[in-house]
Amino acid sequence: MAGVSLENLVKRFGDTPVIRGINLTVQDGEFVVFVGPSGCGKSTLLRLIAGLEDATSGTIRIGEEDVTRIAPARRGVSMVFQSYALYPHMDVYRNIAFGLKLAGASKADTDARVRRVADMLQIAPLLKRRPRELSGGQRQRVAIARAIVREPKVFLFDEPLSNLDAALRAQTRLEIARMHEDLAATMVYVTHDQLEAMTLADRIVLLNAGHIEQVGTPTELYHRPATRFAAEFMGSPTMNILPVTLEGDAAVLSTGERVSLPAAAPGGKADLGVRPENIALADTGLAARVMLVEELGEARIVHAELADGAVLAVRHGADGPQPSRHSPVKLRLDPERLHLFGQDGARLDLGV
Ligand code: ADP
Ligand code: MG
What we know:
By secondary structure, the chain is α+β, with helices and mostly antiparallel strands. It has two domains: 4-228, Rossmann fold (3-Layer(aba) Sandwich); 240-348, CATH 2.40.50.140. Helix content is 24%, strand content 35%. The strands form four sheets. It has a six-stranded mixed sheet with strand order 6-7-8-3-9-10, sandwiched between helices. Strands 13-12-11-14-20-21 form a six-stranded antiparallel sheet. Helix 5 (166-183) links the parallel strand 7 (154-158) and strand 8. It starts with a strand and ends with a strand. The structure holds adenosine-5'-diphosphate and magnesium ion. Magnesium ion (MG) binds at residues 42-43.
């Protein structure tokens, strides 16, 4: 096993910068997830680590070794892609064994290793089948088995669950988490799905247009987003954002209503952020009107319109009668769970 470190890593395609100077250390045994919107550079960054793209400048280390100019096959990494890329004419056994054969492993050694990973991923009964005789989830497990069997120093995953249906995605996510525990392996995992990032990662690296927006544990990103971009990316429904003017220890909305802050803020214009679960329907608070109620089963999302037309999502308990459409309500924002962002998008800290 080994960690990965990236120093001032830059990748340009022609004149277009796609990775704009990334510095990051992934610890040995850590599960790091790259997350961010489509096109932000996640796959490119992973492919740079794998050696499938050449760095324009900067350094990539795996363990102690500088691998920046080393061929992919000699980096000690295994990559699992969204498209499983199995060999259609080979059965599952031979698909898994293929890389070992190329590496010159003995027949007995190969057999022991293939059977061990097949047991681990619960595909032992499928070893004689061809890929076309497997479901999507089974194929993806074969692709993962093929990666594990080579005992790489680092596992790289590029959206491995995107082709699976929701139930299978949840199950395979658990299997990947368990595999990480069992192997204590270093894993770098790319997804655009913030829920997948939250549930799998030791640390999340949030990318935005080729740079790192924030690095931290899932809890840090969720509860202390460093920027408005991070705040809006993590969480579903997304964080509510309201333009406000700061006056002492209050944020004044465009309706003229005041939201008290836990401490005095610098004056001027800012964005006030509050997550749907940190707003309650109460006896006092911001005046609003119910626009729409989404029933989720375990909760309801109430979309409530303020006097100025802004609509806030409120997570509301599933018990009791559903708030009726168009009815007036009052919204109480939890003062301990407010976020403020300056005009440049950076978090304003209020010492909370
Ligand atoms: P993500 O995986 O986050 O969706 P990618 O890393 O695939 O993003 O792509 C990042 C950006 O780089 C995109 O704008 C994409 O169009 C561009 N890009 C990726 N590969 C190439 C390439 N081979 N040539 C030119 N542009 C590329
Ligand atoms: Mg991608």
